Write the structure tokens for this entry.
Amino acid sequence: MTISVQWLSYNFMVYNPLMTTWNDVAGVYVFTGLDRIGRWIALYIGQADSLRTRLSRHEQWSPAVRLGATHVHAMVVPLQADRDRIERELIQAYRPTLNLQSR
């Protein structure tokens, strides 16, 4: 069963990173966990030319797990300009703990 969630007006697919083989596609992703009342919280938001390359060894995954990350939400976004805009909008809206450089 495929689950999707919305971040702002964008639809992201929900993945368990331990059970996912990432495709070699460009996109935006969110490292997420659930809060005490079952709502997704964004711990890190990023983008990549290749989700496969970027997410296979991401330096923020371990810190995100320590903060409660259990899933990755990802959306295919082919154009760089669109990835830049969406990433910026999401970081500004959700202010993830691990996106320190973008605050």
Notes: Helices lie at 51-55, 61-66, 80-94.
